[in-house]
Amino acid sequence: MTRLWMPCIPKCRNRSAFSKVICLLCWASRSPSTVGMGIKSGISGNTSIQEHPIKIHYTMNTPFTAGRMLGLLLLTVSFFACQKDDEDLTIDYREVFENYAEIVHASYEDSYRTVADLKTAIDDFVANPTAEGLESAKNLWLVARIPYGQTEAYRFYGGPIDDENGPEGLINAWPIDENFIDYVDGNATAGLINDPVNYPTIDKATLADLNESISETSIYTGYHAIEFLLWGQDLSADGPGERPYTDYVTDGTGTADHQARRAEYLQVVTDLLLDHLAEVRDEWADRAEYRTAFLATDDAVALGRIFTSLGELSKGELAGERMFVAVDSKDQENEHSCFSDNTDTDIRMNLEGIENVYYGIYTRTGPAADVIQGESLAQKAALVDATKADAVDAAFQAAETAVEAIPRPFDQAILNNETLILNAVEALRELSDRLTDMGFAMGAEF
């Protein structure tokens, strides 16, 4: 057997895959006499054998038939396919990050706007306390939780919401020990509201300074302080708190002392929440300093931040702190929105926020329900590793199904439906793992 070598291949080694294919075909089309020039008998004396990536065995007494040409063509196709593994897949993430920033800003903007609507309802209520006015304020608090719950998918990487100066602890801290704010069952004089001697002034600075100053549960600000002031303690076995509107009546017929201070606290704490939401919203506005810096960040670093946020919210925060701890302790004080029984929605909105980021789509809160949609991590993931991308899709579907299976309200589910909650916990942990795998495959720097 005589070994036939392709002398053109070493020269083509640094060319594109397509050029190498042309090289192969050119060689194959040579006349027999020309082909003979490329023959080296055996391997003795050939000092460059190891440099040649392709070897074709061919006997000179075999006609160069159409079948041989077909064989060479098949070899060429195989060579071209294998070449793909050796070339880097270049993906441009700029539009993904731009769309991410748009979604972040829009959802914080919706969070601010819905709390502004809540503040209007609260002002109207304290000016003229009625059962209807209190109910209107409660409903708007529930609406306000929809966009904010989705923004929690932007935490855990030191962004504007939770860097060293971030306001997250002033916006959404929990669990809350209501004794620090107002009266509770068995203690009619508990809380700042009922202590005008030590706290004669109720203003933003006082509340912000006191927040988490005594313990992790000494919460004076944010959504859950407002929630407590609207609903009161949840002492019901199958419903939310039932604070009477008369807690705010100041004409001498009201219930509970210090009605005017309670009203003042409710207005001040809601104004403070608006300040903090505006702070993070503005950091993500077009051309804002943080947004500009984020969009200029190296792809691997930016991907690492985003995937860290998704994975940590899914596993550590949502599956762990907000679900497993509650079901393990069987204590409704450990559920996220314990006064309003809104924890079910909180969980669903957190998961929706993770989906928003990965699939690059956000439906705005409001009558128009405008949709922001653009280039997504999911689209790029499918190009990088289709198998891992499919696993992420499946994990999202499993998590959605498991979360939806949890009966409402959550505080009763932790007592009576432990298995369903734990199924959701496991599905969310699996989702986190699949997202992390995908992040590594896409080159995220964790």
Low-confidence blocks of residues: 1-66, 74-87
Q: How does the helix and strand content classify structurally? A: mainly alpha
Percent helix: 55-70%
Provide mean pLDDT, rounded.
86
Q: Main β-sheet: number of strands, strand sense, barrel status?
A: 3 strands, antiparallel
Quote the CATH topology of the largest domain: A middle domain of Talin 1
Could you describe the 3D structure shown?
- With about 450 residues, this protein is mainly alpha-helical.
- It folds into 2 domains: about 5-85, no CATH class; about 95-440, M75 peptidase, HXXE motif (A middle domain of Talin 1, Up-down Bundle), CATH 1.20.1420.20.
- Helices cover about 55% and strands about 5% of the residues.
- The protein has 17 helices and 5 strands.
- The chain has helices at about 10, 15-30, 30-35, 65-85, 95-125, 130-150, 170, 205-210, 225-230, 260-285, 290-295, 300-330, 345-360, 375-385, 385-405, 410-415, 420-440; strands at about 5, 40, 55, 360-365, 370-375.
- The strands form 2 sheets. It has a 3-stranded antiparallel sheet, with no helix packed on it.
- A hairpin with a 7-residue loop joins strand 4 and strand 5 (about 370-375).
- Helix 2 runs antiparallel to helix 4 (about 65-85) and helix 5 (about 95-125) runs antiparallel to helix 10.
- It is globular and about 75 Å long.
- It comes from Flavilitoribacter nigricans (strain ATCC 23147 / DSM 23189 / NBRC 102662 / NCIMB 1420 / SS-2).
- InterPro entries: Imelysin-like, Imelysin_sf.
Topology of this protein?
Layout: E1 3-5, H1 8-12, H2 17-28, H3 32-36, E2 39-40, E3 55-57, H4 66-86, H5 94-127, H6 131-151, H7 168-171, H8 204-210, H9 223-231, H10 259-283, H11 289-295, H12 299-329, H13 343-359, E4 361-363, E5 371-373, H14 377-384, H15 386-404, H16 410-416, H17 418-441
Antiparallel strand pairs: 1-2, 1-3, 4-5
Helix pairs in contact: 2-4, 5-6, 5-10, 6-9, 6-13, 9-10, 12-13, 12-17, 13-15, 14-15, 15-17
